[in-house]
Specification:
Elements lengths: L2 H57 L11 E7 L4 E5 L7 H6 L2 H7 L1 E9 L9 E12 L5 E9 L3 H63 L6 H32 L8 E3 L1 H19 L2 E3 L11 E3 L1 H17 L6 E8 L3 E8 L6 H4 L21 H12 L3 E6 L3 E9 L5
Length: 419
Amino acid sequence: MSKGSKRGKRGRRTVAATLAGFYLLGVVFGCFLIWMIPVVKNRPRLLEIAANKGNEVLSAGLLDKVMIFGMEHWLYNEQGRIVSSESAFLHASQREYIRSFVPKVLEKGSVFVPTILLLDNQDNEPRYIFGMIAGVVVDGPNDNRFVSILVRDLSDLDTIMVTYVALFSLMYLVGSVFVLHIFRKERELNRMRRDLIANVSHELKTPITAIRAMAEALHDDMVKDPQARRTYSGKIMEESDRLEQLVLDILELSRLQGSRTEFKKSVAYADGILPPVIDRYMMLCGDLGITLDTSGLDLEHVPALYTDVEKLVTLVNILLDNAVKFTGEGGTIWITDQLHPRSVTFCIRDNGPGIRTEDVDRIFERFYKADIAHNSSGSGLGLAIADEIARGLGEKLWVESIYGAGTSFYFTVGCKPGG
């Protein structure tokens, strides 16, 4: 296993563990808040009720017992003996638990504690609920002190917490998918950035090395023959042109991808745009022994287009240039069109070597190298520029290829609105 794949797996595990940790933290913290908010909110009121209830029981001679819905009241003397109790929902085993608060209340004067209580269930199946215990000291007859303890049922929090966990889980799932998508996109961008730097360095190094080697040979007077010197000079100019074209392509692609290029659409006609481009490549193909077939192109019946003429011409030039590069002598290039209600689809097809299936999806990437994806005579940026032009125009550009049988590039051009 490569170091890169190991780092990738460790990165994925780290992200998964982080997301799981934050999920558990969110669930626990949210449930804690749901529990504590009513506790903090009800603290003064429950302590007051506990005090009033204790005084009420004492003033009534321990005879008047008034039940409060959802609450229980326990009155103890200083020895911890029950003077009065009104138990409605707590299990009998909870009595000792309630009694354990008496010394704390006597020591501090009042105690308020959120807790978990055990219900008295007739089916003998224990059921735990959220609750609150409020205890205060009340003064009785003959300077005797009593402890009034109020128990509040918060069982309605169960439903709130379940609802919170369900909603939080759903939102967290959506958020996690979004974060993972961003994480993958960031990794892909980093990979493309590294590839771009490496490819630009390689593409720049090749012509610079050739120019330097031939220039040194001429400078050191190692080439004596005049014809050979002219050949070296011609090669230097050729490599300089290649270097210049590479820099221009990089700048053009940067402008297109950086949204610094303004696309100026206007009404235009295909029979006025494409013929000059086709005529130029017709002559080039004739010199190279390639047939350029335009019998499937009926420009007279193509409706008025709405596009940026300059950018469209650049797009067609790139695709035709690409077809010529990969079509050998005796090969054929076809140009066809197909009308649609709101657009026209043009196709530039060749019977060259085609593109491997694994390379098709990456053919529009900058500097992407496959067996036949880019020719050494080009900058390797043409198809990436064509793709950015199509995106900027709001059109579609795609490729279909059968390895060993040829390649077809399709692109759409929108028709005049209402035309």
